[in-house]
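[scheduler] slot 2 assigned
[scheduler] job type: sequence-to-structure, two independent chains
[scheduler] chain ordering preserved from manifest
[runner] begin chain α
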Amino acid sequence: SLPALPVGPLAILRVDADLYSSTTDVLVNLYDRVSPDGFVIIDDYHRMQSCKQAVDDFRAARGITEPLQDIDDDAVCWRKAR
């Protein structure tokens, strides 16, 4: 259902999907809708290895180099480049 979701542009994309496939699904389908200077927030990055791996793989595949910033013991975020 995500590819047909009628949303965008997004100032904030908050992902709380836990599993590798669901985290990847959200990023693949919604990341391009995040506005430049918008924020991507990933819950459970430090708690769920599958979530961390999905985010790391997605960022590597897309060449995303903006630094990850810790929000708390679980979550991270980055600001999308212009």
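[runner] end chain α
[runner] begin chain β
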Amino acid sequence: ADATGKWTCQDKGPDDNVVILTFVFKQEGTQLTGTLTIKDNSDKILESTSIRSGTVDGDKIYFATVLSDGARLTHRGTIHADEITLTVMSGGGPSEMTLKRLK
């Protein structure tokens, strides 16, 4: 599986408003780098951060992000062609999201 590309999903922010998450991944071998940008539904950037400690092992993907408020999130998931199912671990416990590859 190759994670390289732009992936997106919608989620609820801490205030229950819809946010759009866009991950841009670059995979070189098993190393994964990239960025996460979080926008509100009026396209305003709320957050932008780098992918840290990213690895890809077969169809499994692992990485971490640190938000501007210091929140540390760990992400682990499975790549299925143009979809990644992710479990995100944070101080509030796990949450699930499905990313779709942008063509």
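[runner] end chain β
[qc] chain β: The chain has a mean pLDDT of 94.
[scheduler] slot 2 released
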